[in-house]
Amino acid sequence: MIAAEAARPIEHPDALDYMLRGRAVLLKPRTPETHKEAIDLYERALALDPQFVEVQSRLAAVLVDSVTIGMTDSASTAASIARAAELVDRALAASPRRAHAHIAKGHVLRARNRWGEAILEYEAALALDHSSVYALSSLGWCKLYFGSIDEVIALVEQVIRLSPRDPRIASFYNLIGTVHLLQSHTDEAIFWLEKARNTSPGLPIPHSRLAAACALRGETERAVAELAEARKLNGDLFSSIARL
Fold first, then answer.
1. 119-155 CB burial, b ≥16 within 10 A, e <16
2. Could you tell me the residue ranges of all domains in the chain?
3. N or C: which end of the chain has fewer CB within 10 A?
4. Helix 15-25 to helix 32-48 angle, to the nearest 10 degrees?
5. Alpha-carbon distance 153 to 113, whole Å?
6. What pLDDT score was predicted for residue 101?
7. What is the pLDDT of residues 61-118, one digit of tens each?
8. Residue 24 Cα distances to 1, 17, 29, 71, angstroms
9. Which parts of the chain sit beneath pLDDT 50?
C-alpha cells in the first residue's frame, strides 16, 4: 500500500507525499543510495511541514540506521547522530506516545553505546505497539550488546514470524548469524550470514562477519574475499581494526 500510494502521480507533492515516497524507497534493498534518497525525501517533507512528527522520527531513524549498518563515513557519523537526536527530541516533545519516536530515540541512544537506556525506549515503543517488528529487532541488537545474548535469537525469530518478507530481513539474518558467531557455532553462523549477504549484498557488515566466520573455519581465501567486499562497500569503516 505504501509503494502504491507513493507511486501515484502528483503534480505538486505535499509533505505527506514526500514522507510516503521516503518510506517506499526503504522497502527496497538497503544500499547507501536508497538511504540517501529516503533522507532527501524526508528532508523535503520537513521543509514543507517542519512540525510533521512522523517525518521527524522517521528521518531520525534512517539517519542513525545509516551509521549503525555501515553506510556512512567517519566524517558524517557525528553529524548524522546529532541531527537525529535533535529531531527525535522534537518528535517526542510533541507526541510522547508515538511508538516510532521512541524507536528513533532508542536508535540514537544505541549509536551512543547507551544500551540500557535504549532498551527502555524500545520497550516503551512495544508497550504502545505490541507487534512492532522494528522495535523488536532493535531490542535484539541492544540485548546483544548489553550482554543478554541468550535472549536475542528468540526475539529475532519472533520478528521473522511477524514479518517474513520484511525489507530489513537481511539485518535479522545478520543478527542471528552474529549471535552464533559469538557463541562459537561457526557453521550456523555461516548459514545465517550467507542468508543475510545473499538477501542484501549491498550491506557491508554481513560480508565482514562472514569473513570472520570463514576465517575461524579455516577458509582463508573466502574470508579474504568477503572482507575485500566489505571494504569495497565501506572502505572507511573497515580500513583498520582501530576504526572498526
1. bebbebbbebeeebbbbbbbbbbbbbebeeeeebbeb
2. 2-162, 168-244
3. N
4. 170
5. 21
6. 95
7. 999 988 877 777 667 888 999 999 999 999 999 999 999 999 999 999 999 999 999 9
8. 9, 10, 11, 19
9. none
CATH class of 168-244: mainly alpha
Domain 2-162 has CATH 3.40.50.10140: no
Contact between 148 and 118 under an 8 Å Cβ cutoff? The reply is no
How does DSSP assign 159-209, residue by residue? HHHH-TT-TTHHHHHHHHHHHHHHTT-HHHHHHHHHHHHHH-TT-HHHHHH
Q: Convert 199-232 to b/e letters by CB count within 10 Å (16 or more is b).
A: bbebbbbbbbbbbbbbbeeeeeebbeebbebbbe
